């Protein structure tokens, strides 16, 4: 369904949104709800990307090394095996 809404977003400068929604058989309110949620989606995706680049051992903003927590798996010298 996101592809349909993205298509409407791209084409809304050349055709009225009401016409596009009718043609594609989607509710205008659904399109506008999708459009309003775009900011929240972008923020969530940015947070997900940031969490993927952060190591579970580097949660401290300080530059000095810290002792890893017992609940953090496989951190440096504290890792078993």
UniProtKB/TrEMBL annotation:
Q: What is this protein called?
A: Transposase
Biased region (Polar residues) positions are 52-61
Task: State the residue spans of region: Disordered.
Answer: 49-81
